[in-house]
Design goal:
The chain is mostly beta strands. Helices cover 5% and strands 68% of the residues.
């Protein structure tokens, strides 16, 4: 028996955007962002053979740095006469490339622990690939044309994360189970 558990951690993203107006209501917003993605995975397995019981645990913790380029269509909501305060919805694709990352794997069999340091993108790493792409969306409130507060989501289409065992891999392929390639966050900014 046993099942993996995923635990999202707090990460950060920093970058800049270029807003290219198409009309008073629409614009194209592209940018360059550097983000740190963290992921922790825990699993416990209990094996009973005769009168002996063996407990195996595995905990993996990885972080990876990505460069992301979003290209989004921004739609201004509300009255066009109110230039100082406005709401916007941004939607569009993004592409990202993993530039670096580290991780560690802790295994324990009946309390005997072993720790291994690995690269996030190596053979023992959690990430299958350095490339990621998907859909980026955000809702923003802009105050006095300079201060921005928003909530965003990036839904990755790539299956970034490796399975721990053959059974997990087969189930993922049969049922198209996502490895939860999803980022949600808050953004604050200043518009020049």
């Amino acid at each position: 028996e046993g099942a993996p558990q995923y635990s999202p951690d707090i990460s950060w993203k920093i970058g800049g955007n270029v807003d290219i107006p198409i009309s008073k209501r629409f614009s194209i917003v592209s940018g360059l962002h550097w983000s740190d993605r963290n992921r922790t995975k825990k699993g416990t397995q209990t094996i009973t053979s005769g009168q002996e019981t063996e407990t195996r645990t595995k905990e993996s913790s990885f972080n990876a740095n990505f460069i992301t380029i979003p290209v989004r269509l921004a739609i201004r909501i509300g009255k066009l006469s109110n230039y100082e305060n406005k709401w916007r919805i941004l939607v569009g694709p993004y592409i990202a490339y993993g530039i670096s990352g580290n991780g560690n794997i802790k295994t324990s069999i009946n309390g005997n622990e072993e720790k291994q340091d690995v690269k996030s993108f190596g053979n023992e790493g959690l990430y299958r690939t350095r490339w990621d792409y998907g859909l980026s969306s955000e809702i923003q409130y802009i105050h006095k044309d300079h201060f921005k507060l928003g909530a965003y989501m990036e839904d990755g289409f790539r299956d970034l994360y490796k399975s721990d065992n053959a059974f997990e891999s087969i189930m993922d392929d049969l049922f198209v189970v996502s490895k939860i390639n999803l980022t949600v966050g808050l953004s604050i900014g200043y518009i020049f």
